[in-house]
Amino acid sequence: MIQTRREFIFQMIGSGILVFPMLSACTSSLENDYNRIPLEKPDKWDPIAYNRIRGNAGAIPPAYLPDINGPDGVTKHLGKHLPYIAMIDPSLVPDRYIPLMWGDPAKGHTRHPNALPDTSNNYQGHWYNWIRIRKAVSRWSETAESAYSNWPVVNPSDRGLYSVYGEGDIMADKGINTVYLAACPPNVRQGDTLRIWAHCLTHGEYIDFITL
Ligand SMILES: [Fe+2]
After folding, report:
1. Does the structure show a pLDDT above 80 at 175?
2. Is residue 12 part of a domain?
3. pLDDT of residue 19
4. What is the pTM (predicted TM-score) of this model?
5. How many angstroms separate the alpha carbon of residue 154 from the centre of ligand 1?
6. Could you list the residue range(s) of the whole structural domain that residue 88 is in?
7. Residue 179's closest CA among 91, 87, 108?
8. How far is CA 176 from CA 57, 189, 193, 208, in A?
């Protein structure tokens, strides 16, 4: 019977269980800890490479992995899930919110569609159901989280809001004109870099940095 934590550790060493974590610490590989998310934007930040590694480690559902690892993985799948600032009328954006879209066509990425849920055939729909934003600084900094419990209309208890690029119908063109109005933490200023951590209901979590 194991009496103490020390005895427990010794027993694991004896059984070889600790070998794997020791190896993973040596390689410091993202594959072994996809929750190790950078606080600051790394010097040579490559959101495609980062999200592909993190996705294969568990942040992206297994059913989508062949797509992100396939020949169109960058433009049509990984790139499609990276955020950019939507150039909409600033009067449509509440204070302490930023307008986000996913899949920047200026980078050759496919724009992210959005789709209604359909309870009659168990289809959960397709949209970003949460967005977490913090200043990309090494010290502690508040995270603002916006929820989107439905599309194309949020529920009153959600902090997130929607707008439309081009001010047309939000459901037109498979929902690609949807703008996510996402809450920002306090004291965000022009020139700040933000870390955007967001979750597509269907395709998993993605992380990127945006400088305002
Ligand atoms: Fe998606």
Report:
1. yes
2. no
3. 39
4. 0.83
5. 18
6. 39-211
7. 87
8. 28, 28, 25, 20
Total domain count, the chain: 1
The CATH number of the domain where 102 resides is what?
A: 2.60.40.730
Residue 29 Cα to ligand 1 midpoint, Å, equals 26
Compute the distance between CA of residue 82 and CA of residue 8 in angstroms, rounded to an integer.
43
Q: Which of 212, 195, 100 is nearest to 142 (CA)?
A: 195
Question: Contact at 8 Å (CB) between 198 and 111?
Answer: no
Has residue 33 been placed in a domain? no
pLDDT confidence tier of residue 156, bands split at 50, 70 and 90:
confident
CA–centroid distance, residue 201 to ligand 1 (Å): 7
CA of 101 to the centre of ligand 1 (A): 12
CA 150 / ligand 1 centre spacing (Å) = 14
pLDDT value of position 4 = 53
- Cα(131) to ligand 1 centroid in Å equals 13
Distance of CA 139 from the midpoint of ligand 1 (Å): 31
* Residue 162: inside a domain: yes
Cα(151) to ligand 1 centroid in Å equals: 13
Q: Do the domain assignments include residue 30?
A: no
Q: How far is the CA of 46 from the centre of ligand 1 (A)?
A: 20
How far, in Å, from the CA of 38 to the mean position of ligand 1? 22
